[in-house]
Write a structure and sequence with these properties.
The protein is built from 38 helices and 14 strands. It is an alpha/beta fold. Helix 16 links the parallel strand 9 and strand 10. The longest helix is centred in the last third of the chain and has 27 residues. The chain starts with a strand and ends in a 6-residue tail after the last helix.
Length: about 775
């Protein structure tokens, strides 16, 4: 018989103390984690005194220790229950019983697991019409030993869009992992698809497509607790028997089947069990696992809520969706939910993916990796066949879902300490944390700093305390609650936290600016106008402000100071104004300036001939150009072709250069320029000459020919100047352009701008206003 108590050896105590020190916990915290009412058993454990056998095992598991290596004179048999389950009928044909029960429960398990309820859709959806096979990460992100430098490998010179949830681990299919590990703890973020994965396993197994030798048994643990609360001794086995009793099966048959490992036990949502019931449910699961260990058992739990480790279980994490999974889900969603024809649904899904992959929708693609948020994105897309222009509203809906809707819809009540914070206080807390960390360019934070930020916020609440110890304990509880309940803050590696998505950090940062908006805070934001990583903050903030006039005007003034500070840039902008004013046509004046801004740049410049800004100001530029604009664009092209030619490739580019000079259709009213261009074209050698001869001609005459072309273009059209900017001046010019582009994007994103302010800013883009 197993010993009723165990004690640690001297070497075991040493190992345990080292592990305890690494955790950085107090004895009270360890006691709470293990589920003990006092810390006395913990004290006894570390002093080598005997304690309850199960408590001894649980302390070792929580500290990542092997009980056999810690205990004093204890064998593996003494750590394992020796008692065998009663009422086993060894003569029972369990294979036929499995087949019988799978057939009998077909309709019942289909009703239990065959449908899913999704956000804002009144009817249930058949699981097979929407389910996407999940991938599994065999290494838990929060268990990895990594430092912040490894997690955050960002180029400090240029902030690039990235997904904080991106992982480089090998992904394995869900069913493959279940086949590999018979005892599995499946962890995941809120809305990551844990329940639907178990449902799919149950349906697939019952149909004989997965583990056809097993009987699938799906148990929602929250329902189990509620259904057995009035019982003196609730039992998973009795609960299973009650489920199958309608099929005329005895408890002895159930026990025999379980004892011989003929069941696929699927225990869903351990995290949804109320705190006061957690001890009894864990005890039930542990007893069941120890007694019926031959079965395949999968338990799901939110990743941050997993405080208890079951003996012999492998922990894995459900992975975010890949792009191909997102596309597959979208195809199924638009076919199933919208009830459109297959052709229309496929077209809608294709359009959804195309728009999702656009650079300006990188934030949405990032969120769509989480199934619950992907569903919301599809829902918002289906009506207008586009994403809302007011991104702040979309993110708000996603956060409302994570903060309230997801748990509320299933009647789940969680941590009491955290519930004492109102929804507004939770949002303000997250906004404060986001704004401070984003401003400091911190996307990954040590757990201690995250606690400090939370404690600082809590200390300023009306009901807050200033006791340092109390604040520390409360901040630990709040951080854990945010991670468990909403998945908005997540542990990326041991002791390192971040927002689950950069998009949420940006949204909360913008909300903090909006909530405290005044001239000073808006000016502080405007000072970041040249920082690419602040772009989304500007767009979100301007969408929240009612009206957004002051921020837009501050941005315009800041942009003007960029130009005034650089004499060469002023010269360039003065030329730009004079040239655009000389152009005939009815285009928006700022669109004409944008047009000439880009064609004035060297051909190798990244902005050269990028007409997005010009077209966004006046869509007619995307259709037919006026004679003036078309001619100047064509002449700029001629100059670009010529300056990029070298002697070695002149024979290959000669035809392209001659063709570019054929501009008579644009020169009907400019005979002098037509004659001069024809003269330059006639100076070019015949393409019939040999390659070496053509090479020699360009080496001898090429530079002079280009100089004549440039002089002609400058003299006749006032374009083609060589600006001789230094590297810093080119950088200033590019920053000036991007700032104007951002200002226009903000103007288009603003939900409320005074008409006079809008007109004034649009008309003064790419102009220095005194």
């Amino acid at each position: 018989m197993a010993k009723r108590s165990l004690q640690a050896s001297d070497e075991g105590i040493r190992k345990a103390k080292q592990a305890f020190k690494r955790k950085g916990w107090t004895q009270e915290y360890l006691a709470a984690t293990v589920g003990l009412e006092t810390r006395q058993p913990i004290w006894k454990f570390f002093t080598g005194k005997p304690i309850d056998r199960q408590a001894f095992k649980e302390i070792c598991l929580v500290l990542d220790l092997n009980p056999l290596e810690i205990s004093q004179n204890c064998t593996e048999d003494e750590l394992t229950p020796s008692e065998q389950p009663l009422n086993i009928n060894f003569n029972l044909d369990t294979d036929n019983l499995v087949k019988k029960l799978r057939s009998a429960q077909s309709d019942k398990i289909q009703a239990q697991c065959g449908t899913v309820h999704i956000l804002d859709i009144a009817r249930p959806i058949a699981l097979n019409e929407l389910y996407i096979d999940v991938n599994i990460l065999e290494e838990i992100n929060s268990k990895r030993w990594m430092d912040i430098n490894e997690l955050q490998k960002l180029d400090k010179e240029q902030f690039e869009r990235f997904s904080l949830g991106q992982v480089r681990q090998k992904r394995v299919s869900g069913q493959e992992v279940v086949l590999q590990y018979s005892k599995l703890m499946l962890l995941g973020k809120p809305g990551s698809g844990k329940t639907t994965f178990l449902q799919s396993l149950a349906i697939s197994c019952n149909k004989g497509n997965f583990r056809p030798d097993c009987l699938p048994i799906f148990i929602n643990l929250k329902n189990f607790v509620e259904d057995t609360r009035e019982l003196i001794q609730p039992s998973i086995v009795k609960y299973i028997h009650k489920y199958f009793a309608v099929f005329d099966i005895t408890e002895q048959e159930i026990i025999t089947l379980l004892s011989q490992g003929k069941a696929l036990i699927l225990l869903d949502a351990l995290d949804e069990v109320a705190e006061q019931d957690s001890e009894i449910i864990i005890k039930n699961i542990r007893q069941f696992i120890e007694t019926y260990h031959k079965n395949i058992i999968v338990i799901t739990c939110r990743i941050a809520a997993q405080n208890y480790r079951f003996q012999g279980f492998t922990e894995v994490e459900i992975a975010d969706f890949t792009k191909s999974q997102i596309a597959n889900f979208a195809n199924k969603w638009f076919l199933t939910v919208t009830k459109k024809t297959p052709a229309k649904a496929q077209s809608l899904a294709r359009k959804f993916i195309q728009k999702l992959e656009l650079a300006e929708n990188a934030q949405l693609l990032e969120l769509a990796a989480t199934p619950i948020l992907l569903n919301l994105t599809c829902l918002l897309f289906q009506f207008a066949e586009d994403f809302p222009s007011q991104r702040a509203e979309l993110y708000k809906q996603g956060l409302d879902l994570l903060l309230v809707g997801w748990d509320e819809a299933r009647g789940i009540k969680r941590d009491q300490v955290y519930r004492n914070l109102s929804l507004l206080q939770k949002i303000k807390l997250l906004s404060r944390v986001a704004a401070i960390t984003f401003a400091q360019e911190e996307y990954f934070l040590p757990e201690k700093k995250m606690h400090q930020l939370i404690a600082d916020y809590l200390s300023h609440l009306p009901q807050g305390t200033h006791d340092a110890d109390a604040l520390e304990l409360e901040s630990v509880a709040v951080l854990k609650a945010i991670e468990v309940q909403h998945g908005l803050l997540v542990e990326r590696a041991r002791g390192i936290y971040s927002f689950s998505h950069l998009t949420f950090q940006e949204y909360f940062t913008a909300r903090e600016i909006f909530a405290n908006a005044n001239t000073q805070t808006l000016q502080e934001l405007v000072n970041q106008i040249n920082e690419e990583r602040w772009r989304e903050i500007f767009l979100l903030t301007v969408g929240m402000l009612q009206p957004a006039d002051e921020l837009l005007q501050l941005m315009k003034r800041k942009i003007d100071t960029l130009a005034i500070a650089n004499e060469k840039l002023q010269d360039f902008l003065n030329w730009l104004m004079e040239k655009s004013c000389a152009v005939k046509g009815s285009y928006h004046p700022a669109s004409v300036r944008a047009f000439y801004f880009t064609i004035a740049l060297p051909p190798e410049h990244p902005l050269a001939r990028t007409q997005n800004l010009a077209i966004s100001l006046d869509h007619r530029l995307a259709l037919n150009l006026s004679i003036d604009l078309a001619l100047d664009l064509a002449l700029t092209h001629v100059l670009s072709v010529s300056v990029t030619i070298t002697a070695n490739i002149f024979s290959q580019r000669l035809f392209a250069l001659s063709l570019a000079l054929d501009l008579e259709h644009l020169l009907a009213d400019q005979l002098s320029l037509q004659t001069s261009l024809r003269y330059l074209k006639n100076q070019l050698p015949s393409p019939k000459q040999g390659r070496e001869a053509l090479k020699m001609w360009w080496q001898t005459h090429g530079e002079g020919w280009i100089r004549k072309l440039r002089t002609l273009i400058i003299g006749s059209r006032q374009i083609g100047h060589t600006w001789q900017f230094t590297q810093q001046e080119w950088q200033d010019l590019q920053q000036y352009w991007y700032a104007n582009q951002l200002l226009l994007d903000c103007l288009n994103s603003a939900s409320n701008v005074t008409p006079n302010v809008r007109e004034s800013i649009e008309n003064s883009l790419l102009l220095i206003c005194s």
